[in-house]
Structure formats: structure tokens, C-alpha cells
Design a protein that fits this description.
Elements lengths: L1 H19 L3 E3 L1 H4 L6 E10 H11 L3 E4 L7 E9 L4 H7 L5 E9 L4 E9 L5 E8 L3 H11 L8 E15 L4 E12 L6 E4 L2 E8 L6 H9 L9 H9 L9 H10 L1
Length: 258
């Protein structure tokens, strides 16, 4: 069964790469004008086979980010939390005012940032980041300004990596990221879990912006919004002592892929 899934995933990924060639490219510098550090995020899960079907429908309305002739970029993250997993537990318990802290490496642009994401009680995500490497004084100032004092002591708890397709709407401030080849590991890289055949779409927009073409896709393929956190799902896979009732439907869905 695993071999069958792997063959399907490989076939879908090859078809995805072919269909991305039809998109008009946009550079990293050009994309900076579409920066959405403060935004509303909505996520959707489907198979990579479905993603291959969706792409031709979107090509007329979206540009694609291209870096060094690559249209699929690799992201690597190291997440931090308190020793008692406060960030994880707040998310699990449905708190709307919550934080996430990670070090993100953009492999294809060779950039690393320390990032703090804050989601407020209006479901608006505000992301702040600082370029690494940086001196200790700048990092401390960044953390002090963007994270409450009670979260002063953080430890690395999870790594993940995935490949990302970044689409930018030709009209309005809308970005659509499509993530495939998701995998998790512990901070020491001694344990690893890959999820094949899964595509994670995230629509990132300002409060009033829309993407009519993507909304048509969602309706046609009967794709529903999903509450999916790569961080929380990874933690719930690796740490058996954490509460995970809220994430069991997603975990059951992932088992179908891996």
C-alpha cells in the first residue's frame, strides 16, 4: 500500500511541475509589493492528484514565484515552545489569542529568519521577523518587542520541511501557497515522519480581498476549509504526552496519505 501511494505521489508531483510551467513568473523582488505580514489565513487539504487538476484553472489569474528558474521552493523550519508546550496547548484548547515562534530557512533563496506569528481574537495573523544571522542584542530586542514576557524561555521542539508553490493574484492583495512533500522530525533529526500525497493550500489575503477563481475551484471540487497547523500536527505525532483530541480528525485524515 505504501509503495502504491509513493508511485501516485511521484506521478502527481511530475504532473504538477509540468503544469506550473504555464504560469507567468514573478520575481522575489516583485512579490515584495504583495507582502502580507498582516492578513487573514484560510487553509484547505486535498490530494496532490487534485492539485494537478486545479493548477490549469488558476493560471489565468495568478503569477508564480520563480527563484533561480525554480517554481517550487523548499522551506525548512525549527519551531520553539516553552517546556510545557504553552503555544501548542493554547492552539489545541481553541485560544484565539496565540503565538508561534520559528526559525525558517528558505533554501532556494538562502535566507534565514527568526519569525514570531501572532493570531488575535479577530482571526488576523500578524507576522514579524528578523534576518539571521544577527547579533544577540538585536535578537533579544526583537523577541522583547514581539513576544509577551511570560514566554521568555523557549526551547526547540520540532522540525519540518516541505516544498512550496507560491501564487500571487493578478488582481488584489491575495497570495495562495500550495505545500507538498511535508515531513516532520524532532530537533535532533533522530526521528522522521513523511506525509506523501498531501497538498496544503493556504489563502492569504487582506480583510476585503477575494480570489474568485480559487473560490470556484473550492466549490467545484467540494473542498472544505480545514484548521490545519503544521506545528501542532507535528507535535501531536512526535509527543505522545500532549493532548490531541482537537486534532484527531486531521490525524486520521493524514493516515490515509501515509
Amino acid at each position: 500500500m505504501q509503495e502504491t501511494l509513493s508511485r501516485k505521489s511521484t506521478y502527481s508531483n511530475g504532473l504538477i511541475e509540468q503544469r506550473l510551467a504555464a504560469f507567468k513568473p514573478i520575481s522575489l523582488l516583485e512579490m515584495s509589493t504583495h507582502n502580507l505580514q498582516k492578513r487573514i489565513d484560510t487553509k484547505y487539504l486535498f490530494t496532490t492528484e487534485t492539485l494537478a487538476l486545479i493548477l490549469p484553472i488558476l493560471k489565468a489569474d495568478f503569477y508564480i514565484l520563480e527563484i533561480d528558474d525554480k517554481r517550487i521552493q523548499t522551506y525548512e523550519n525549527l519551531y520553539f515552545d516553552t517546556e510545557s508546550y504553552v503555544f501548542y496547548n493554547k492552539h489545541h484548547n481553541g485560544h484565539t489569542n496565540r503565538y508561534k515562534v520559528r526559525k525558517r530557512f528558505y533554501r532556494d533563496s538562502n535566507l534565514t529568519f527568526l519569525e514570531v506569528k501572532h493570531k488575535n481574537n479577530k482571526s488576523v495573523t500578524n507576522k514579524k521577523r528578523i534576518r539571521l544571522p544577527s547579533d544577540r542584542k538585536n535578537i533579544k530586542k526583537f523577541i522583547t518587542e514581539n513576544l509577551p514576557k511570560e514566554y521568555k524561555y523557549l526551547v526547540p521542539v520540532l522540525r519540518n520541511s516541505y516544498k512550496r508553490i507560491s501564487l500571487i493574484s493578478k488582481e488584489g492583495v491575495v497570495r495562495l501557497t500550495l505545500d507538498i512533500d511535508l515531513s516532520f522530525s524532532n530537533p535532533e533529526f533522530s526521528n522522521h515522519k513523511a506525509v506523501s500525497g498531501l497538498a496544503i493550500a493556504e489563502l492569504k489575503r487582506s480583510s476585503h480581498a477575494k480570489s474568485e477563481s480559487f473560490e470556484r475551484v473550492l466549490k467545484y471540487f467540494e473542498i472544505k476549509q480545514s484548521s490545519f497547523s503544521k506545528y501542532c500536527i507535528g507535535c501531536s505525532i512526535f509527543n505522545h504526552n500532549l493532548k490531541k483530541n482537537r486534532f484527531k480528525p486531521i490525524l486520521n485524515q493524514l493516515r490515509k496519505f501515509s
